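User: Predict the full complex structure for these chains.
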Amino acid sequence: MALNLLPIVIYILAFFTPLLIIFVGMPFQIRFMLKKGIFGVDVHKKEKPKIAEMGGIILLIAIIITSILTIILIDDPADKLSVGIFCISVTIAGIIGIIDDIFNLSALLKPFLLLFGSIPIIASGRYETKPMLPFVGETRLNIVYFILLPFIISVPANSVNMLDVFNGSMATTVILVLITIFFANMIVFQDNFSNLNLTDIFVFIMLGTLIAYWFFNRYPAKTFGGDTGSLTVGASLGVIAVMGRLEIVVIIAMIPFIMNSFGIISSVKGLFERRQMARPTKMTKDWKIESTGDPKAPITLVGLVVQEGPLHERDVVKTFNILTLVSGVFAIITAILIRVAVGVTS
Amino acid sequence: MSLLESTSKFFRDIGAGIVRYLHLTPRLWKIIGLESFIFATFVGICAIISEGIMLLPSPTEPGWLIFVYAALKVGLSLLLVGIWLIVWYFLTKRLMKNDGSNKIKNEEND
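Assistant: Here is the predicted structure of the two-chain assembly.
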């Protein structure tokens, strides 16, 4: 049997193109932002360094260029459309992030605007109203699915945004989620790389993007992605979940993100901006993160992690990774249970 | 730095990183427990839907009753998901309460 090389070539390009663009472009972006005075102060460091903001713009550019390159290389018009929809949805979220970084959108307006990110998916019909559940297999949730579909960009984008609070925390945790999705896709759809798989393309684009971004955002960070970065990355997870038909797997893999945002929203009874809420953590004299113990502060994942005692910023990120790794294992188990159920029902 | 030294440093750093991760894991047992509970109850709900709710008898004759029965099954499943979310919220809140009491205890000991 002849090996089809085109999918492999597309996967390699999907991974290395954003990696290269970010490695080349990010140093320029950092210098430009610092020169223009667009920087944030890293409050978790004793020296309070000035860090270039809006690094997410380079992430967004890398995703757009790679998507266009992939569209050119793919033969199938339906697949071309799917990659285009991925690119447009992520771009809408990214543009909302840019607007938020510049004008500070209200906590209610931001998720509302993100609802528009799902319009390309709904309009193109690139979704199936048959999410797959463990034991149950394929379900038919025509009405419920259609009600939930507008939130598919808004919810993951905001969840990732809420966990992007420490150097490298977003990059490493989302990389773990993407690796989980890659293996879950192999398990559920018996993907063997002989044919082009859209989920794999999206995963490789995002892995290349985030691995390169991590080099600049890891402790001590040289750039902050800002809302541009976190909303772009979060939106991509939503698109992958719907277009890859791995909704439940992605939800399980994102348990730490959901725990964090669910805790915040439910404890403060609504959507508020960070600066409107009491701080859940503070810095100790030796620059570790500890809980403030303020009953008015929101329930956050950081708050839960530091309850046993103060932790250094790097260690807090490591604990996030451990929790994402655990949820990743659960997501793989979910994928196996789905595969078994789908195999039985089909 | 020679190639041998830099390679050895690279592997030592990886080793130290793994040790650090292993050192941090025990302090997360409560949150990992909560994650496990969330996952286990979700799988349990799926099992109940598969082996219970889906097997509820539906009318065989065509008509609006089929839609009502289907809506009831979806409603029951969503009710279970709602209960799951509420339990999740209260458990998270309880973990945070423990945080407060631990803090007071620590301060008293100091």
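Chain B has three helices and no strands.
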